[in-house]
Design goal:
Helix content: over 70%
Structural class: mainly alpha
Radius of gyration: 16 Å
Order of helices and strands: HH
Number of helices: 2
Distance between the termini: 13 Å
Shape: elongated
């Protein structure tokens, strides 16, 4: 289980990094709005909050499983 958990965490980190780079590199978003630095930072903060929430849920489940063993 530890190897699978580690692979999942590394895969999620790669996806998080890729999406973060995409958010900072794009000049126009899907609705056609020009991306200013403030908008890019806001998009990144929303993305980071979602990712941290996902990590908190995963680590909570992981700790519950470890406690039951």
């Amino acid at each position: 289980m530890k190897k699978g958990w580690l692979i999942l965490q590394v895969l999620q980190l790669i996806i998080f990094t890729g999406v973060s780079i995409f958010l900072f590199v794009r000049t126009v978003d899907g609705s056609g709005a020009v991306q200013t630095p403030a908008i890019r930072l806001t998009c990144f903060l929303v993305w980071a909050a979602f990712y941290l929430g996902l990590l908190a849920i995963e680590w909570g489940i992981h700790l519950l499983i470890r406690r039951q063993k």
